[in-house]
Amino acid sequence: MKLKIAHLYPDLMSIYGDRGNILALKQRALWRSIDVEIDEISMGDKANFVQYDLVFFGGGQDKEQKLVCHDLQQGKGAALKEAVEEGLSLLAICGGYQLMGEYYKTGTGDTLPGNGLFTIRTEPGQKRMIGNVVLEVGREQKQLVGFENHSGKTYLSGQTRPLGKIVHGYGNNGEDEGEGAVYKNAYGTYLHGPILPKNAWFTDMLLAGALEKKYSGITLAELDDFIEKKAHTSALMIAQKKSRR
Amino acid sequence: MFLDDETGGVGVKDTRLIAAVLAGKTISSLSRIMGLGAGSTYPGRIMRKIDPQVLAKLANTFVQGSVMVSGTNGKTTTSNMIAHILQKNNRSLTHNKSGANLITGLTTSLLPSCNLLAELQSEIGLFEVDEATAPLASSEIKPEFMLVTNFFRDQLDRYGELDYTASLIRRSLPNVRGSVLLNADDPLVANLGKDAKGKVVYYGIEDESLPLTDIVQAADVKYCVNCGELYDYRTIFYGHLGKYSCPNCGNTRPKPEIYASNLQFKNITKTAFTVITPQGKLEMTINLPGLYNVYNALGAIGCCLMLGLSLAEIKAGLESFLPAFGRMEQISFTDNQALLILVKNPTGFNEVLRTMLIDQQAKNLLICINDNYADGEDISWLWDVDFEGLLLGKNEINFVFTSGLRAGDMALRLKYAGLPQEKIILEENLKKALENTMLKLPAGENLYILSSYTAMLEMREIIQKKGYLKKYWEE
Predict the structure, then answer these.
(1) B217 touches chain A (CB under 8 A)
(2) What is the CATH number of domain B54-319?
(3) How far apart are CA B152 and CA A11, in angstroms?
(4) Where along chain B do the CATH 3.40.1190.10 domains lie?
(5) Residue pLDDT, tens place only, B271-284
(6) Among B144, B169, B131, which Cα is nearest to B67's?
(7) Is the pTM here over 0.80, yes or no?
């Protein structure tokens, strides 16, 4: 079995430990004897997204986002949207998440157009939303823990649903209790931390979803997640404690 | 203000200033006697309430002017080096040595050198200033000289993005009366040169024989600060510090006037190098490890040259300098030696790991990570540390204990770097972690204790209570 991952703009969009997300995907696949191939795709590169099982897109600063936004508009953005419509799995964090929407207006007045994969709009905010985040995902209310740091306020509409409901922290805009976005197999979120190592259940869900397209009916073997659970629980408790202050 | 009749001169007494200083001194001694905390900042807050101009008025009376040190990494070590060199050469100075580098701390630091008439008794002001405080502090202090060390991702959760940090320093530069000393090897810092109104002096490293490092994925500056094109790095010393040029707009590392060459990393506590300055050449051996301390030494040497010290005076001062507590501290346990080292961001952590490679024994580690405000609450930076390349690939590892509030995150980082799970021992409680580490540590082997700021303070206290900590590293 083999998992093919496209890592978008690792040289530009990789802030706050985003490489940990790639490490988590890779290791959790390798520990289950699933081969992993990771292609790094950056400025000026051609990409055929249909050949991948999963696309990862990390966060970055405004300056880098501007460069990336321009590059995405040369065809890659639209191709990525089309591949997601066909069922490609995607995880986009913070700055990458903002560029997968309709537009991102920066604090300095620029409007960066996105590819509209998610029907979200990001407006400039007055204050930076910084701190630990806990959200509950789905009917089972499974928890995600992480750390957010953004001033853009993201608003959802149309067929894009929030990834979860905020328990601690700000989330998309600090107003409607929503965090992140889901459309088909594409996920967007403001969570750094990085999100995947500490939320092993979510990583496995992404892996299973990505592999499902190629190898239907697979189940992932159980792993010894003692340390993952420990880190998850302590992050949860720290977020609770700090929000009470 | 009124005419000073008693002395018969034209001197004027500023009653408001005197009141502020007296209040500051009173609060300061009260808080010391009563053992209250915040003694390094609270008096300054009250002083500024009484006379908002207290810092501006006093700082402008230093005979030799003031030196301001800012930047992300190394400002404490660098300003401690400067202070040590100056004191060794009998220059009297005012220095915010407790590391209280916000405006209230800077104000408080004036008290010990003020007499009861609010007159400064020292000739030089030396201020380590937090980046966010730099615009205000520089507008009040109007420093004669300013040193900018580097800009690294550090506690970004407090200030937002790196470009913003650079803009804070840019806004401060017009307040500098004389020269600005800039690190030529950091593109973000060197680029500030065009905003300085006085003379700009660059310092850097010129040593092509150093083992080169690849630009790591986590590097903070890869794209031209002018036009956004990918920099062409001929040499990278560490992080994003190196010899860069932009193939598009021509933005290039300025040639440094003060530079180090022939670097030799002797052992875990000693580094030798040659310094070339416009005043001549200097052979130097410092009691600190690693490339980053060579940068700190260069900054200190540059400042002392601007203050008019001779090369011989600088050498005598710098070679007798010992590191500040906790940044790198040697501890003798009954059967083992340990080094307690502060880690606070990816670049610093990488340099510590690189320095540890000088010791070729199998490694025993205790890593303590907290996420209190002073540590930086976002610990995702642990994932940007190159454990894969600098720890696992190059050392034999006996065990790693992880401890502190974020022991789980640290353990997880090592697991995903590929360290076998049985070598990772997680114990959140710092005291228990140290005790268990000592039980597991074979006699005669070294222990490395790497800690974030607040974890380091706690760990130091634990070790001190056990009676092991030598005090000679302290001032």
Answers:
(1) yes
(2) 3.40.1190.10
(3) 17
(4) 54-319
(5) 999 999 999 999 99
(6) B144
(7) no
